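Changelog note: in this version the structure field was regenerated for every chain. One regenerated record is shown below for reference.
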Amino acid sequence: LREFLKVVKPDIGGAAEAFSGMTNLAEVILYSPYKPQEGDVLKAKKLASRIMEALTSGKP
């Protein structure tokens, strides 16, 4: 996932920070014994919202 982030980061402008956060969260949940909590779901939803907002706002 980090490799994909490196590839797309220059092209996603203002969404990069939230996308990075989503990538980190996904890696922890996928690749560690950590069990996701309700707070992780809420965090993922907020990050997804920020990503969509940044990508649809037209701001670089």
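Spot check on this record: The chain is about 70% helix and 0% strand. The first helix runs from residue 2 to 8.
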